[in-house]
Amino acid sequence: MTSSQQSPDPHGHGPEDGPGHQGGHGHGHAHSHGPAEPVSRHLRKVIAAVLIPFATAVLVGLVVLWPGGAPSHERTGVGFDRQTEQGKVVAVQQIDCADVNAAQVPPTGDTTTPQGREAVKGQQGQCAKATVEVTSGPEKGRTFTEIVQPDAPRQLHEGQGVVIAYAPDAPKDLQYSVTDVNRKLPITVLAGIFALAVVVVGRMRGVMALIALAVSFLILTLFILPAILQGSNPLVVAVVGASAIMLFALYMCHGLSARTSVAVLGTLISLLLIGLLGSLFIDWASLSGNTDDNTGLIHGLYPEIDMSGLLLAGIIIGSLGVLDDVTVTQTSAVWELHQADPGMGPRGLYRAAIRIGRDHIASVVNTLFLAYAGAALPLLLLFSIAQSSVGTVANSELVAEEIVRTLVGSIGLVASVPITTALAALVVSADRPGAAGAAGAAESAGAVGRVGSTKRRPARGGRRRRAK
To answer: Which of 116, 253, 272, 430 has its CA 20 to 30 A from that of 290?
Structure first.
């Protein structure tokens, strides 16, 4: 070590400050490590004055609308509204379909129609006779047989776990039937892999994200869904529930800071915009929200539920996750730009950060479109088979509902970029550091000047020897 490095700083900096001042990068070190510097106390009070009443209103909404559980009803035995038990396939035997399909209409021999092809297979193919054991419920251990047609989309094999529908009012031989396979194990394994990947890569931040995910799931299942079933306004429930999820998830994952608070404000404004646009266009397009068997069953069981309001609630909740990503990214971009150049004004910060936001907009909008298109792919295939025109497809309520959902959510996401960027630029530019901060800045500037002057004039002793 050189003699100049061993000597103490004449201005009072001890040896522990050395790494931060070597090579003339002392000022850069102060801005390149650790979290963002805290904003002033005055600005924190302003942010708190906005967010505390909002958080209080969300808490009051949770208390007032809390349902205390989903209302009970008499099961219809239709669709998902059936009593189910667990079962296991203990044996599978191949038999002639003609022996079990004798009651069917004999095939006509015409295989050009779907009915003709099914009739031929029903008489000439090999069917599976599965013996299924009930593994849960009051009749655990009971067995029954299930006939699986050769063209059935779901085939059974020995040892497979299944979900069984139970109809207590049916004749004894017809009380049980297989409705689905048991997928709990692969889904649990996949969820475990996901959690492990999040923790390994994200570390403590990943753990916080998983906790926030669990809380979001609890709010959805314990508050939002039961409250809607109890007859509360779906839009109000969705706004309160989504706001609670947003507050908990953002502050849990990103910390209680001014940066996170700006992201919360940007998300809130964007959600309000999505709610207004969604309400306007759902009413204008006369979307009922009752477009398939599942929504029809819900409306039949709970006719007091506003189905169009339920559609709007789904749009708000579905947009929240992507909104969080966009607003946090934009806020962080503004904060980092401010740290890199503290002298940059709000206009400069906005222009620099909005260039980042434009790239984000392009990817997010495409992501939303492909997500909805993938979910509706079977429906789109049906329209393609029917050779329907684009106008006919778009005008049908099933597709129009997805179009409104996609476009309203995308408009909110696009708007969240300039909204959040402007808020963040105004907040960091309006901040006025206190005396301690000013003194620290002056001290850092002095340290930089000392290092710079050391570099300009020839050093003595060890410095000269190193130069050689």
So the answer is: 272
